[in-house]
Amino acid sequence: MKGINVQDLVERFKLEVLAGSDDLHRKIEKPKAHRPGLEFTGYFDFFSHAHVQVLGRKEINYLHTLTEDERNDRIGNIVKYHPPCFVVTRDLEGLTYLLKHCEQEGIPLLRTSLPTFKFLDLVDNYLSKALAPEIAVHGVCVNVSGIGILLRGKSGVGKSETAHTLIRRGHRLVADDIVVLKKLSSESILGTHNGMNKEFLALRSIGLVNVSRLYGRKAFQDETRIVLDIELSKWQENALNNDLELEPKFTEYMDVRIPHIEIQLQPGRDVAGLVEAAANNWYLKMQGYSAVDEFMRRLEQEHPK
After folding, report:
1. In CATH, which superfamily holds the domain spanning 4-130?
2. Residue 138 catalytic?
3. Residue ranges of domains in the chain
4. 138, 154, 218, 249: which one is catalytic?
């Protein structure tokens, strides 16, 4: 199962290590953090023990109201499940009893100055991406006016050159050549780079260029939700479908269906402009507008039955 180390969490959020500094290699394999509440009262039927355990002001204040024996009993019942780590928010203090149990069981006890709700939001977002199932595909990922697009096609068809034209028009590169796709949910795919190809674009006859250095920081972004899969292919005579509205097609990545469009290439054809049009048209459809429906209404008004 895919996982990250507690050390990764410490570095990502600059957490203070209060206990268990020798156990930061422990694995986190579950997304979403958990706030133990009912567990402190002795109810463990649905305890998410494999998740990061977050203790906020509510939990810590409750523990302060207990006697020493009660605290030892309640905390002891939780730590015996060996969760990957505990994180205390708001720089809360008076944690001697937690320190003792975490040191005994080898469980990292961490602390952040962030409010509980904010830390939960940040850590859930981080873990959902870090632990998401992923695959790598050959292509180019761009963000066009806020819309994530995966450009695919055979090597040399012009994917990187199309991306370069889009960047010059104010859009953004996410990844070139190798695109990492992460499944965030049953309906959502995130596109990103693999770290090595961050900001780099390979252009034939030119070589490798750094788009951020060449065109400024706005030319690149780390990730984008993929909503369109566009395949660039060579021009084939009489192969294009010129119907008013093409039959919807989809490409599946890790069982997530993404709308698919094929754009055939021909000298002089504004491919980048067609990609922009596809992105804007997808956005309009999401807003409930259909150019075909409007055209048909006009026909009916002009030629009523």
Report:
1. HprK N-terminal domain-like (3.40.1390.20)
2. yes
3. 4-130, 134-294
4. 138
Query: Between β-strands 223-234 and 207-210, what pairing exists: parallel, antiparallel or unpaired?
Result: unpaired
CATH classification for the domain delimited by 134-294, as one of 3.40.50.300, 3.40.50.410, 3.40.50.10400, 3.40.50.1370 = 3.40.50.300
8 catalytic per annotation: no
pLDDT tens column, 34-61: 999 889 888 898 899 999 999 999 999 9
Tell me the whole-structure pTM to 2 decimals.
0.83
List, in order, residues 6 or more apart from 60 with CB less than 8 Å away: 88, 92, 94, 95
Q: Which of 23, 176, 177, 229 is catalytic?
A: 177
**Sign of the torsion angle spanned by Cα atoms 86, 92, 98, 104:** positive
Residue-wise pLDDT for 189-210, tens only, equals: 999 999 999 999 999 989 999 9
Residue 177 a catalytic site member: yes
Angle at 56 between CA 53 and CA 62, to 5 degrees: 105
Hey, what are 232's tokens?
């660039």
Q: Which of 30, 159, 182, 193 is catalytic?
A: 159
Task: Identify the residue whose tokens are 């806020």.
Answer: 146
